[in-house]
From TrEMBL:
Residue intervals of the Hflx-type G domain: 235-407
Family the UniProt entry places it in: Belongs to the TRAFAC class OBG-HflX-like GTPase superfamily. HflX GTPase family.
Chain intervals for the UniProt region annotation (Disordered): 1-25
Stated role: GTPase that associates with the 50S ribosomal subunit and may have a role during protein synthesis or ribosome biogenesis.
Keywords: Cytoplasm, GTP-binding, Magnesium, Metal-binding, Nucleotide-binding
Gene encoding the protein: hflX
SUPFAM superfamilies: P-loop containing nucleoside triphosphate hydrolases
Lineage start: Bacteria, Pseudomonadati, Pseudomonadota, Alphaproteobacteria, Acetobacterales
Protein name in the entry: GTPase HflX
Entries under InterPro entries matching the protein: G_HFLX_dom, GTP-bd, GTP-bd_M, GTPase_HflX, GTPase_HflX_N, GTPase_HflX_N_sf, HflX_C, P-loop_NTPase
Coiled-coil annotated residue ranges, if any: none
Record's subcellular location: Cytoplasm
Chief place of localization: cytoplasm
Keyword RNA-binding attributed: no
Length: 463
């Protein structure tokens, strides 16, 4: 996979000072946030009201996020700047004066990678690289980079590589048409630049086909595993939420597991599952998932598939929010948007009823002075601190209640000899009545979750 880190040279790239470095010191990076002030009527109220209406996030919070993202790939950030955008220049996005100013900062601080927290066209990326004499990556490139480093499973790595190649391929195609246009009517076919790009495109295309085939294989295997797990007949609770909201910390607090939690974006990329006990005595499976982020590259939505299949199968979806974050409202909106997109289309990874299965957890209450001080959230939201444990008993009770709320009362006739099925019903449901018929069969009335009911009625029943 192509990496922005200095070890790998890309022949299609302009001379990259990072590649000429012989010392193995840290990669020095600059983070640039082009900031568009969107003026909307009635938005003058600012502050809280603006956040509630879903207006653009504060520039500082966005820069902090971008810096966090960049820092998470191990570069050392030596310069950062917020640059107000007056207009989007097609050649460089930024204004001429801004490009010059960044050039000075970058040169003065020996920066080898500049992260521009925006979506750059291939042309803009090239021009900025030439102007600044360093490698430039945009937000999509950065997120791809992070995902590439974090993927742990085979499927995760393949999916990220596929996304990366598709991103690169569109770049090649676009810069190719750009060159074409520049050449105009000269009929200058088969120039060296073009043939190199053609070769790159073909190689990328071949690799894409190969990865897709491999992914198919991996998914088939995972499908088999999933079916095996469906037979583990416990309700599933999935944690979703914006990156860094505290999902893994909450997962650890609820399960006592040692899952990697860190003040680092996308610390968790592949789903992790573990059993938890609930106050009613019921057992459930808790599933930790990848964090969401605003402006998720479209290529990566697909990479969430493994995660989303867990969510799709979940009986309860816990939306973990960082209640103390200045952008908590915008983060909530982003998460719901991604979930909504995943529930769309013929191959939707999520079925339409996901909203009904959702429950909000307002985390980091300790930073707001305790769970009593947390305001906002959906009806039924539970405030907690995954760090101090405050609110966790209430959360367990709320999850239990949620699981019971969807329960249905069902009647079954169980043959006298079928002790296993009867035992199963006792383990997973609440048997409210039981009568012996003359035949010796048992008439059982039991409260079951829809998922358990489906499991029980599956033919053949496999426990
Ligand atoms: N003060 C405070 N910090 C918390 C709380 N929960 C989590 N954190 C911190 O928030 C940071 C992110 O926590 P994680 O659990 O890794 O977040 P995550 O949602 O799993 O993040 P990704 O896996 O990157 O999506 C860590 O530094 C945690 O220690 C909390 O209740 N209070
Ligand atoms: Mg995590």
């Amino acid at each position: 996979m192509r990496s922005i880190l200095p070890q790998e040279a890309d022949p299609a790239d302009p001379p990259d000072p990072a590649n000429d470095r012989t010392d193995q010191g840290p990669t020095l990076a600059a983070v640039i946030l082009p900031y568009e002030r969107v003026r909307r009527p009635g938005a003058a109220g600012g502050g809280q009201a603006a956040a509630a209406e879903g207006l653009p996030r504060a520039a500082e919070a966005r820069l902090a996020e971008a810096t966090g993202l960049a820092g998470s790939i191990g570069v050392t950030i030596v310069h950062s700047a917020i640059l107000p955008l007056r207009e989007r220049r097609p050649s460089t996005l930024l204004g001429e004066g801004q490009v010059e100013a960044v050039k000075k900062d970058v040169a003065g601080k020996s920066v080898t990678v500049a992260v521009v927290d925006a979506s750059l066209t291939p042309v803009q990326q090239r021009n900025l690289e030439r102007a600044w004499g360093c490698k430039v990556i945009d937000r999509t490139g950065l997120i791809l980079e992070i995902f590439g480093e974090r993927a742990r499973t085979r499927e995760g790595s393949l999916q990220v590589e596929l996304a990366h190649l598709e991103y690169q391929r569109t770049r090649l195609v676009r810069s190719w048409t750009h060159l074409e246009r520049q050449r105009g009517g000269f009929g200058f076919l088969g120039g060296p630049g073009e043939s190199q790009i053609e070769i790159d495109r073909r190689l990328i295309g071949e690799r894409i086909v190969k990865i897709k085939r491999e992914l198919e294989q991996v998914r088939r295997t995972r499908g088999l595993h999933r079916r095996a797990r469906e037979r583990v007949p416990y309700p599933v609770i999935a944690l979703v939420g914006y990156t860094n909201a505290g999902k893994s910390t909450l997962f650890n607090a609820l399960t006592g597991a040692g899952v990697h939690a860190e003040d680092q974006l996308f610390a968790t990329l592949d789903p992790t599952m573990r059993a938890i006990g609930l106050p009613s005595g019921r057992t459930a499976i808790l599933s930790d998932t990848v964090g969401f982020i605003s402006d998720l590259p479209t290529q990566l939505v697909e990479a969430f598939r493994a995660t989303l299949e867990e969510v799709a199968a979940a009986d309860v979806i816990l939306h973990v929010r960082d209640a103390a974050h200045p952008d908590t409202a915008a983060q909530r909106r982003d998460v719901l948007k991604v979930l909504g997109e995943m529930a769309e289309g013929p191959n939707a990874a999520l079925d339409g009823g996901w909203q009904a299965r959702m429950m909000e957890v307002l985390n980091k209450a300790d930073l707001l002075g305790g769970t009593g001080e947390v305001i906002g959230g959906d009806p039924g939201a539970v405030a907690v601190s995954a760090l101090t444990g405050e609110g966790l008993p209430e959360l367990r009770t709320a999850i239990d209640a949620r699981l019971s709320a969807g329960m249905e009362l069902v009647d079954y006739d169980i043959p006298a000899a079928d002790g296993a099925r009867l035992a199963w019903l006792y383990r997973h449901g609440e048997v409210v009545n039981r009568e012996e018929r003359e035949s010796g069969d048992l008439a059982v009335t039991v409260r079951l979750s829809p998922a358990d009911r489906a499991r029980f009625e599956r033919d053949p029943f496999s426990g």
